[in-house]
Amino acid sequence: NIQEIFEFGLFDNFGISYENPKGEPYNETRTDCDLVENLSNTFENLVIHEVIKPIIRVKQDGATRIVQRAKVVVKSEYDIEQESSKSQKKQVIGNISLPISNIDKEKHLKKFIQSQLKLSCSNIDAKKIVKQLSRKKHS
Fold first, then answer.
1. pLDDT on residue 120
2. In what order do the strands lie in the sheet with 70-76?
3. Do 21 and 48 meet the contact criterion of CB atoms below 8 Å apart?
4. How many CB atoms lie under 10 A from the CB of residue 56?
5. DSSP assignment string, 43-65
6. What confidence tens digit (pLDDT) does each residue in 107-129 have?
7. In terms of DSSP bridges, do strands 70-76 and 33-38 run parallel, antiparallel, or are they unpaired?
8. Inter-residue contact 65 to 15 (CB < 8 Å)
9. What is the rounded CA–CA span in Å between residue 13 and residue 106?
10. What pLDDT score does 113 carry?
11. What would the pLDDT profile of 44-102 be if each residue is shown by its tens digit?
12. Cβ–Cβ under 8 Å, residues 73 and 36
């Protein structure tokens, strides 16, 4: 809610500004962000992946100072690229896009069975149907 107020510009006359650094490069020399979590195994080429708290600045007497440092979660550019390429590797069956892993296929088949076919069955029944379909496919 506060984000909407800042984006609407209600605090512009008071010299208070809001900044969301998502997608910006991150390194340990940034003074406007505090690292909450690094989702990568490296500290090189980090990008701000998620912003928990934004940067809030106040302009007074011609100078701008930070009153709230951003709390951020970061990932390496390499990890982001890998995730992007994985999400592009999907099978398409009809108009349903299925990820390649068998676990994801099974989850999507369950959803398909329960929602598209309008079957009211439990997860156990859906698993049985998925197994039967898998057997027919492999035989």
1. 57
2. 25-26, 46-53, 70-76, 33-38
3. yes
4. 18
5. -SSEEEEEEEE-EEEEEETTEEE
6. 666 666 656 555 555 666 666 66
7. parallel
8. no
9. 55
10. 61
11. 999 999 999 999 999 988 899 999 999 999 999 988 888 877 665 555 555 555 445 56
12. yes
The segment with the largest mean pLDDT, out of 6-15, 37-46, 92-101, is 37-46
Question: Collapsing DSSP states into helix, strand and coil, what is residue 91?
Answer: strand
Number of Cα atoms under 13 Å in the Cβ half of residue 57: 14
Task: Give residue 17's identity as a one-letter amino acid code.
Answer: S
Strand partners, 18: 56
For 26, list phi and psi in degrees, rounded to 5: -125, 140
Question: CA-CA-CA-CA torsion for 108, 113, 115, 116, nearest 10 degrees?
Answer: 100
Region 27-54: mean pLDDT is: 93
- The Cα–Cα gap between 19 and 71 comes to 12
Q: How much is the pTM?
A: 0.57
Residue type, 56: I
Q: Please say whether the beta carbons of 54 and 19 come within 8 A.
A: yes
C-alpha of 118 from chain center: 30
- Residue located via tokens 């099978």: 91
114 vs 94: CA distance, rounded Å = 17
